[in-house]
Amino acid sequence: VLAGPTCPVDQPGQDCAPTPVAGRVDLHRDGVIVAFASIANDGTFSLEARPGSGTLMVDAGDVPFPVCPGTDVTVKAGEVLDVDISCDTGIR
């Protein structure tokens, strides 16, 4: 789970790479959180869930930014999903 942009204007020599988001990722099914995981310092997360469809939502706490889109996923038995979530910092 990464957020960007991190600089208002890209300039040579400036590191404007997306940064990890602090918080957690919740798996929602039919409006109910069925699984959740904390986001690690490097932006990764891992959660276990029963097979089925749902939406991953980032909970970054009570802050207006970053804004993270819901990410629809389908979990299948015995499979591991690799999901990238890109959030918007609001910097322009």
Short key terms for the protein model shown above:
four-stranded antiparallel beta sheet; 92 residues; 37% strand; three-stranded mixed beta sheet; elongated; mainly beta
Provide structural commentary.
- With 92 residues, the chain is mainly β.
- The chain is built from no helices and seven strands.
- The strands form two sheets. Strands 4-3-5-6 form a four-stranded antiparallel sheet, with no helix packed on it.
- The radius of gyration is 15 Å and the shape is elongated.
- Per DSSP E runs of 2 or more residues, the count of β-strands stands at 7
Amount of helix? under 10%
| Helix count from the secondary structure assignment | 0
What is the element string, with H for helices and E for strands? EEEEEEE
Widest sheet: strand ordering: 4-3-5-6
Question: What share of the residues does DSSP label as strand, in percent?
Answer: 35-45%
What is the arithmetic mean of pLDDT?
A: 95
Quick summary of this structure?
The protein is mainly β. Helix content is 0%, strand content 37%.
Topology:
Elements: E1 2-4, E2 19-20, E3 24-29, E4 32-38, E5 52-59, E6 71-75, E7 86-88
Parallel strand pairs: 1-7
Antiparallel strand pairs: 1-2, 3-4, 3-5, 5-6
